Amino acid sequence: MKNLGKETETLEFKKTTGEMKAAMISIASILNKHGVGTLYFGVKPNGDVAGQDVSESSLRDVSRAVYETIKPQIYPAITEEVFEGRSTIKVEFSGESSPYSAAGRYYLRTADEDREVTPEELKVFFGANKYREKWEKGLSELTEKQVDRSAIKNFWQNAIAAGRLPEGRYTCPIILNRFGLVRDGHLTNAGEVLFGNNHPISLKVGIFATDEKLTILDMKLFEDNIFNLMRLAEEYILQHIRWRVEIVSWERDEIPEVPVAVVREILANSFAHAIYGGRTTHEICIHPGKITFYSPGEYASKYKPEEYIKKDLESEIRNPAISKILFLNHSIEKFGSGFKRIDSLCKDAGVKYSYENGQNGFKFIIKRNPITSDTADVTSDVTTDVTSVDELNLTEKTILAILKSKPDASREELAEKASKTVRTVQRTLNSLRDKGYIEREGAKQNTVWKIKK
Fold it and tell me: 17: which DSSP letter?
């Protein structure tokens, strides 16, 4: 028996024309995903040609079903094809007027299955694909000489060390041409954001006194290419999160509250899947109770993050050229594995996380554990964890956070940063002192607050 192989994202088999409704769904699904495909009637799902009766009437039935069911209208080639004496109906179709519906419903092809989607999901899918096809390959205003040569050199050295680029003699022009990042003497848009020397991307980073964006303790704007921004972002985060010390076999280990690998994975995926040139910019906010990573552009996949964690799904890549460079650089471990890797690392470290999928961007949220101090009970030789800020109200936490950043802040400065009156600030300082969190040092005119907890 003749076998036509396996079903794919552009090839579908139906045993008979009795599966006409399902066939029309497959046609719409394939059109929406790829714009072209082939469907056979008379072939089993495993590819075996079973054959079926083919007549002028059956060919007209298929044509009529396509005409009445698929919208907008398409004009497929419907023919009889014979394999080893068994007749089949072959339907070859294509279309450039997506989205296509089958009986008023919309579908997308995933592997060899057809999945019904909402208009909103379809809008996201086509928006992401339209962006992907046009933006990366578009030419920027930068010439091929306006590049950050040290960033390119670091890239190929990292890629060789990771075993993802063969050893050899590389130059900046060789790298740019090899990965399609230059054309007609100009960097492509992907080449500009990866290696441009004109500071093409903005990244806002900030530290806040509370979990709301009210009291800013520090705010910076970095402008550079992807490679330099990933390094700057990582350094900023690691400088401003908490570290604990563990002594094992007389060796001192400093361990961050959020694993460095988690920070790197989130940053790499944030830059790989962003929409560039949009209304918002990359942003990282460090709050007492959380760290947020914001990436411009709607979530790029039809699958939810938890589906990537639980299953082995193919990656849907918004920026293929950028993602490939980050993969070769070892910034991305494996396509489609980002959420799975982050989930595993966070579980190992006891770190909780969540995400928010907004209309203009995707936000990943790392939950910070409460500050604890180790208080040793000498008589029992038992170490007890004591949460040090649970007894404080919101204003007290805010003032304490500001003082940790600027111990010599005056009452007027504290009032301005915390959006409180000077009188409220004085009451709060007294309360923090009475509770043993701060201690005054220096003269009244040159007060410095020593943080005790």
Answer: G
* Contact yes or no for 233/281 (Cβ under 8 A): no
Q: Largest Cα–Cα distance in the chain?
A: 103
pLDDT at 384 over 50: no
Instruction: Judge residue 344's burial from the number of C-beta atoms within 10 Å of its C-beta, 0-12 exposed, 13-18 middle, 19 or more buried.
Output: middle
Q: Say how far apart CA 219 and CA 285 lie, in whole Å.
A: 9
Q: Where in the chain is the domain with CATH 1.10.10.10?
A: 388-451
pLDDT of 377: 36
**CATH architecture of the region 388-451:** Orthogonal Bundle (1.10)
Contact (CB, 8 A) for 17 and 62: yes
Which letter does DSSP use for residue 375 in this model? Answer: E
Tokens of 193: 């954001």
- Residues contacting 86, CB < 8 A, separation 6+: 2, 42, 49, 50, 51
Instruction: Let me know: does 335 contact 269? Beta carbons within 8 Å.
Output: no
Rounded-to-integer distance, Cα 353 and Cα 253, Å: 25
- Separation of CA 357 from chain center: 10
- Verdict on whether the full-model pTM lies above 0.70: no
Given 3.30.950.30, 3.30.420.40, 3.40.50.10610, 3.20.20.70, which CATH number is that of 11-117? 3.30.950.30
Phi (first) and psi of residue 210, to 5 degrees: -130, 180
Please, which residues bridge with residue 49 across strands?
43
Residue 426 exposed, middle or buried by CB count within 10 Å (0-12, 13-18, 19+): middle
The residue among 81, 89, 111 whose CA lies nearest residue 23 is 89
- Rg of the chain, C-alpha, whole Å: 30
Q: Which of 92-101, 221-230, 384-393 has the lowest mean pLDDT?
A: 384-393
Structure tokens at 150: 């040290």
3-state DSSP percent of the chain in helix, strand and coil, to 5: 35, 30, 35
Cα dist from 62 to 87, 101, 106, whole Å: 15, 17, 20
Query: Do residues 306 and 259 make contact, with C-beta atoms less than 8 angstroms apart?
Result: no
CA distance 283 to 363: 9
